Amino acid sequence: MSTIFVTGGAGFIGSALVRLLLAETGHVVVNIDKLTYAGNLESLDDCAGDPRHVFSHTDICDRAALDALFARHRPVGVIHLAAESHVDRSIHAAGDFVQTNVVGTFTLLEAARAYWTGLPPGERETFRFHHVSTDEVFGSLGATGLFSESTAYDPRSPYSASKASSDHLVRAWHHTYGLPTLVTNCSNNYGPRQFPEKLIPLMILNALAGKPLPIYGKGENVRDWLYVDDHARALRTVFERGQVGATYCIGGNSERTNIQVVDALCGILDRLRPRPAGRYGQLKTFVADRPGHDLRYAIDAGKIGRELGWRPQESFESGLEKTVQWYLAHQDWVGHVQTGEYRHWLETNYGERK
Ligand code: NAD
Ligand code: TYD
After folding, report:
1. Threshold 0.85, pTM exceeds
2. Full domain range(s) for residue 50
3. Which of 33, 42, 84, 135 is catalytic?
């Protein structure tokens, strides 16, 4: 039985990936997570009894802790998702983004390189360092065009600039030291267990609470949406079969304006949970725009389709329906996030209070 490290495995996408690896492979998964506000072990409740899931409460900036984990578990590879991930937070406080996304990725790269250098030749060849990144590193598109693996970097928010920096570090560690790296750049994810400060869960929960649905600017900004389990399947595919040193763009071929997303959500909620006070769409409210708000993201995911045979399984409509149903059926998860109770794990285990 071989071991994989997943960083950020208590987050939204990381928890979906940990669940998939446990269900569909024989790997032991060492889940390395600092449990920031975005880390939630309740998102992995169904994996709690699995002896192949090993949780390590570790900051990726802690080199000594990482060295000890590599020495102890001897992984065949790392899938690196740990990051600060919310653009709005990065606008108000960029420090944590530079620390975790840039310094943390550097620290993890160095720990991985030291471990990899000491492996016997066969294991050195098969080791992989897979860095999970975003399409936001490419900047903003006008009305036409698509991002692809050859698009020049042009990050424009503190979040995307920190992710772009980490992507450059990973590629440099491949070219300079030969570390067998993979990089994926994915479009906006949605689905169960997303922290409710991001557009889709925020709108679902505000609507259910009868609160305004805050749409930035005119709501004309476009994102390409991918269901989180489709992203997890893409990550597994690239980790197992991607070409060393290569980049793969991952997307859902589901471009929608923010208004279209909110209208679709309101339509599903009107059907599944009709509101006596009127249709959910009445709650839409236009608010001040995000500073530097990127207009449009769209991905050409042709390479991963052609070379590795990955395609999304969910349409935007089927994925959105599943997502709304999940939030309706998991009011306990939602309630614990809203009250802060999901952080009790930390207090019980570490006496920390945040
Ligand atoms: P998330 O914010 O839900 O989860 C991030 C996880 O990383 C949390 O569990 C958090 O506790 C952990 N973490 C943060 N700082 C850490 C540190 N210093 N040490 C260890 N753990 C730390 O994020 P997500 O949406 O699941 O995104 C995961 C990755 O995928 C990120 O790298 C992000 O840039 C990338 N990505 C996200 C999207 C998206 O739409 N959400 C799209 C493309 C790429
Ligand atoms: P978000 O989920 O924060 O993802 P990202 O900024 O990484 O694309 O936002 C998705 C889009 O929704 C983005 O164009 C900003 C917009 N948005 C709103 O209009 N209102 C909101 O309350 C939020 C959180 C986002």
Report:
1. yes
2. 3-347
3. 135
